[in-house]
Description:
This protein is of the alpha+beta class and 126 residues long. The protein is built from five helices and four strands, in the order ααβαβαββα. Strand 1, helix 3 and strand 2 (83-85) form a beta-alpha-beta unit.
Amino acid sequence: MIEEKQQSEEPKKGNFMLIAIIFFLAFIILLALYFQSNSNSFDPGISRVKCLSEKSFLFYSKSCPHCITQQKYIGKYLGMINMTDCLENVQFCIYYNVTQTPTWIINNKYYLGSKKLSELMDISGC
């Protein structure tokens, strides 16, 4: 009788481990999907960013949290974007009537707030 009880408990332990492994793998997959959907994975390529830089100008401020977000959205292409810091070039920003940062001028139209690269490509037509 004792032997029968021990034998019936062993498959339960195996089933528990299998279920635990399945839940763990599902958790890892969901976590990877979450981070993938929240990342800025859009990569337009150098030629499209050159097109954007020809059609746009970014006004920002080093102390602006939204500007920091904007710079993160631009990522590795930051050096290709035409931009100025309004704290260092106040008169230039006043001349263009920029009252808040970040502000994009794209094709002679003003766009306020941080924009993802995919949105900038759509706006600019690049």
